[in-house]
Amino acid sequence: MHHVLGARDLRQIEELWQSRWTNDPPAVAHDRGSNSEEQRFYLLDMLPYTSGELHIGHARLYTIGDALTRYRERLGCRVLHPIGWDAFGLPTDIAAQRLGTTPPALTQQCIAHMKPTLQRLGTRHDWSTEINTSAPEYYRWTQWLFLRLYEVGLAYRAEGPANWCPDCETVLANEQAVGGRCERCGALVQVRNMPQWFLRITRYGDALVDGLDDLPGWADKVKRMQRNWIGRESADGRVTYRLRDWSVSRQRYWGAPVPIVYCPACGMAAVPDDELPVMLPPPQTVGPFTGEPLAQVDEFVNTQCPRCGRPARRDTETLDTFVDSAWYYLRYVSPRHNLAPFCSEAAEACMPVDLYLGGVGAGLLRRAPAAGALCPPRG
Ligand SMILES: [Zn+2]
Ligand SMILES: [Zn+2]
């Protein structure tokens, strides 16, 4: 007869392996060592949103990453398998209000709840890489990257039609306005003409479509989705796209402030690099968290023009959270580097990403923080 494991045995097995894994962590991300390029493997998981609880979709995704990391290690690879938190954004902003707390406090609470759960899963992540996109040392570089795009005209301000949620009081991306309703609150989305910040992604329409042919191993379903999203059509020699420039303006608190200043004399001016990050005002200085909160904090708004030194006003919008999560794979190669978004030597050693796990295949959804998981019932 085979032996049936009891709860006591399982606890012992759990303790044994947890301590083995703790004492034998995976290769450190920025340890460049002397391994040749063939022995490296960069396995990138979609970084989790700080929703407050892990769900079965996370367990599924990170179990796949865990198995592949251990497999590659057995083959003698030095595997970079980083982990961090996608922490800014509308879901947390709204949930914080509902729970009577502030977005930064709720984010900390969510991480404090999710991190030990993920560690207990034993997913062989390199926790020394842990990043948080809402931390000033991260969003400093999100702002820095925005300014590089601004300098060459790839980030620009213009009036255009926007998806406006009257309840959330912010512009939404097309992906957040599904079927004409706000993904977060279900309100009917209005189309409003308003000035916004855009990233000029339409300039890369051709490169995006043509590049799909160079992606062996990608599911046809994903390639088809990409093609439909770009929507290139060649109406009699004139090429048109369904793709529109990306509106990254959000009229909410919980995002990276746009690092731009408006001067009555000079007009629009970029915040100098050595003054980054433009810090979010502390939550206790913010009145209501709706109605463009940053515009109501005088200490934040009032500043000096970086060109002429006269009184000027800061831009009071924040960047869409998808801007933060557009470049985290680069931050992971040198997560504590403080001279640039990433150390080019480390990027040289670790990039490109060998395998990305996430997206449509993984069944992961961005979710609002779950009230029940965090807070005891009131009253
Ligand atoms: Zn809404
Ligand atoms: Zn000026």
Could you please describe the fold and organization of this structure?
With 379 residues, this protein is α+β, with helices and mostly antiparallel strands. It folds into three domains: 37-133 and 327-374, HUPs (Rossmann fold, 3-Layer(aba) Sandwich); 137-200 and 245-321, Methionyl-trna Synthetase, domain 2 (Beta Complex), CATH 2.170.220; 203-240, no CATH class. The protein contains twelve helices and 17 strands. It has a four-stranded antiparallel beta sheet with strand order 6-5-7-10. Strands 13-12-15-14 form a four-stranded antiparallel beta sheet. Mean pLDDT is 88; it is low at 361-379. The protein binds zinc ion (2 copies).
Radius of gyration: 23 Å
Q: Estimate the strand proportion.
A: 15-25%
The CATH homologous superfamily name of the largest domain equals HUPs
Cofactors and ligands: zinc ion
The geometry reads as: globular
CATH fold annotation of the largest domain = Rossmann fold
* Mean pLDDT rating: 88
What CATH architecture label of the largest domain applies? 3-Layer(aba) Sandwich
| Coarse structural class | alpha+beta
